[in-house]
Automatic annotation (TrEMBL):
SMART domains: LytTR (SM00850). It comes from the Bacteria. The keyword Lipoprotein does not apply. This is LytTR family DNA-binding domain-containing protein. One of its GO terms (molecular function) is DNA binding.
Length: 143
C-alpha cells in the first residue's frame, strides 16, 4: 500500500488499481464506503451518534425504525428505504421488507426448505432472508 501525505491535498482520495475487483476487495471497498456514513439514534430522550460498523441491523416495526447494536437498541426518525439508500455500497443489505442487515456481523447462514435463508449473527440473534432478497443477499455475502 502506498500513502502520499501532503498539505497540498484538500481532501482524502482513495484510488485502487487492480486487474479486477474480487470478493475480498469488494468487501474492503464496502467497508471504506461505510466509514463515510453517519447514523443517529435516540434512546432515553438522548440522541446518539452511532458507528455503522457496530450496527447489526436496522428494522422497521409498525412504522417505527430501530437500529440494533450488539446489546443496545435505538429509535430513528428515518424510514427503512432512506437507510437503504444511505447504506448502499456498504456491507449492509436488505433481507426482508422490514430489515436491513450488516453482513459483517453474520456468523453463519443456512438454507431453509422454502427458499429462504436463516442468518445467525455474531450476537446469537437469528434473522430470516426472504426469498425475494436472496439473490442480492448472495451477491453481497456469499459470492
Amino acid at each position: 500500500m502506498t500513502v502520499y501525505e501532503s498539505k497540498k491535498y484538500n481532501k482524502v482520495e482513495i484510488i485502487i488499481n487492480c486487474p479486477e475487483v474480487d470478493h475480498q476487495l469488494g468487501r474492503l471497498i464496502d467497508q471504506i464506503n461505510q466509514m463515510g456514513i453517519t447514523l443517529t439514534g435516540t434512546k432515553d430522550d438522548k440522541i446518539y451518534s452511532l458507528v455503522p460498523e457496530h450496527v447489526y441491523y436496522i428494522e422497521s416495526i409498525d412504522n417505527q425504525t430501530f437500529i440494533y447494536e450488539e446489546k443496545e437498541v435505538y429509535r430513528s426518525q428515518m424510514k427503512l428505504y432512506e437507510f437503504e439508500q444511505l447504506v448502499k455500497d456498504t456491507p449492509f443489505t436488505r433481507i426482508s421488507k422490514n430489515l436491513i442487515v450488516n453482513t459483517t456481523h453474520i456468523a453463519s447462514v443456512r438454507a431453509l426448505l422454502n427458499g429462504k435463508f436463516e442468518a445467525s449473527l455474531s450476537n446469537d440473534e437469528k434473522v430470516i432472508v426472504n426469498r425475494h432478497y436472496v439473490k442480492t443477499f448472495r451477491k453481497k455475502f456469499l459470492s
